[in-house]
Amino acid sequence: MRIACLQLKPQLGDVAHNLKRAEAIIARAAPVDLDLLVLPEMAFSGYYFNSLQEISFHLEPTAAGPSTVWARSVARRLKCFVCVGYPECTATSPNSPIGIQRYNSCVLVNPQGNVVTNYRKHFLFSIDETWAEEGKEGFFAGEVPGIGVMAMGICMDLNPYKFLAPFDKYEFANHVIDSGAELVVLPMAWLTAQSAHSPIENALVPEADTLAYWVQRLQPLIDRGHKSGREITVVISNRVGIDGGCCFAGTSAILGFSKGNVKVYGCVGRATEDLLIADVPGPMSAKPCRHRTLTR
């Protein structure tokens, strides 16, 4: 299975520019025979909006806005699955008692350009809470034809709930194990501890502390492994650059987890825009699509 992560430096609120940057990175890499392409969290809108008012113009209708249109086009062109994060606004009836709802979401599109699933971030980071609601369905897990059993989360989903749950509860990692997933997709807008005002040194070098923390948060995959003994592939697509005075960590990675072992199939630098491509064990089993979710 050939997987790619598109590490992008989006400009906050400039969707047209960000779409062009993504296309330029793909064109430069000229990938062939991809099975899956993963982009960061809120890849084309940018991430660090401080209020509903700030983000309102950039909200996209459920699996129907610019991010999904782009994903469908690229999926058909490259003949691969595409996953991209975006800020979602539900299209509800004017008579609905619930009204409009907003989520930090990601959409998965198949090679035919059809939407497979729309996942809503379950654990919100503090900045998400200024405009978004928690996805109530729990973390995603499902059988995706052409991929097999897949789990999905977004950024903060990898952390303890609200940073208040016990660290060793490992909510998302245990969800992966319990679901039987062999492929895990994590769009990210993960911050670095580095000051946004300090020069970025060793831009081409991955941020070791960030990568080590991600692996630590997936510890149950090392302790228990997949029930079949197969390797679990984890795809982490992060972004780079600065939003709202905050600096992002980059370090997008494609990892393989088995009992007692972690492989790094590929990892990019802390401040580079690039398309990371790696071949991992596969193909995954293709079964009828039956989606389910697990709650915390």
TrEMBL record:
Q: Where does the CN hydrolase domain start and stop, copy by copy?
A: 1-282
Instruction: State the coiled-coil residue ranges.
Output: none
What keywords are annotated for this sequence in UniProt?
Hydrolase
One Pfam family assigned to this protein is CN_hydrolase
User: From the UniProt record, which GO molecular function terms apply?
Assistant: protein-N-terminal asparagine amidohydrolase activity; protein-N-terminal glutamine amidohydrolase activity
Q: Please, which domain of life does this record's source organism belong to?
A: Eukaryota
| Biological process annotations from GO | protein catabolic process
Q: What is this protein called?
A: Carbon-nitrogen hydrolase
High-level lineage: Eukaryota, Fungi, Dikarya, Ascomycota, Pezizomycotina
